[in-house]
Amino acid sequence: QVQVVESGGGLVQPGGSLKLSCTASGSVVHVSAMEWYRQGPGNLRSLVAGITNGGSTNIADPVKGRFTISRDNAKNTIYLQMNNLKPEDTAVYLCKAEIFGGSNWGDFWGQGTQVTVSA
Question: Which terminus of the chain has a lower count of CB atoms within 10 Å, N or C?
Answer without folding.
Answer: C
